[in-house]
Amino acid sequence: MRSSSCRALSVGMVQIIRKVALPRPEELPPSLRAAAAAAQSIKLREPRPVGFPLLFDAQVNLIESAVAYLHEHGVQRAHSADTVRTYAEILCDWFDTLEQNEIDWRAAAPADLVAYRNRMMTQVSGHTTRPYSARTINHRVRGVLRFYEWAVRTRWLTASPLVGRESDFSIPRQARFSRLRSASSADASFFVLRQYEAMPRPLAAGQVRELLATLLPPYDLMARWQIYTGLRVSELLRLQSADVKEPPRARDRPFRLVDVLRKGRKAGYVIASRSLLDETAAFVAIQRQAWLRRRARRGLRTATDALFIGTRGTAVSKNRYQQVLQHAAGTCGFKVASHVLRATFACMMLERLEQLAKDGASINSLFIVKILMGHERIETTDRYLRAISIDACVLSEVFDTLGVG
Question: CA 263 to CA 326: how far, in whole Å?
């Protein structure tokens, strides 16, 4: 298969066009104002939000099956905007590859999906300019398979060779699958690559100190929240100023439980230490208020409840935070992403809890960290326990230096 790149939205390729808000009647010529007013009066049963992705082919025809799939997940199932964006990018890349190779999506065969997978193994990403990781390739392949399973289930297709036992190429399987595994998951395993679990790589004490000293507000405080509480970056950016506002009576307590909205919209909480809460209160009272007032003086809209805003008075985005982290870490001479800070918290906490258990405390360290990290399965938390056994001395030094506990 020829390569594709959904990032370059040029003529002759599948495109993602985001839905925009309807214009106000006064913004249009007089001849169109009546139509604009009538359009705004129409009540939709399941309206798509502004920014909803719409896929168009090279002839600017709406790819209705893909849009219906995104509508079910984004509107009916109310998945997060990041999830819908990811699904849209996967479908954009898949449909674009099919279009360049003149293959109708309804007639896509297992050989086409294998060629699509193999092409990613030999080329670099148009977005990062780096080779695709096995995780990214598998994520896209599973996304395509998920779309075809949905298409058959919802009767967009009566059948597809990508769904069911027809996708096994009649090759005998050596592995013995559990009775609990469905046929579709067994078929999917034929297309995905063998993927090895990467061990968490927490920061050492010196790296933590150097990174925090290099970061500027508000990014230094954001990094502290991740290192001290283990928040995911999406959970961190969802924090609002009201979430950390404390009544006067609570300010003499050594810690506080802060409610957060976890991945998958699950309710959860993190434990914030007194020092972290005090730093956050100072940021809200000084920098945050100053940046909001400066934006208001410029006549710009300042209505935002986000806790972490930048110097321009707008909420910090995920991409901006990641860029600042990577730049600061590069200045320090090492690599860092937001999940590394989360891994640092998990390993530090597990190290301390394991030591308490050895000293006789009746605790389940894995279960405690599972709750604090918001993990769905205990196996995910177990990765950090294996990581701390590699370099427990370094991790203990990090914990003692930061004083988290």
Answer: 23
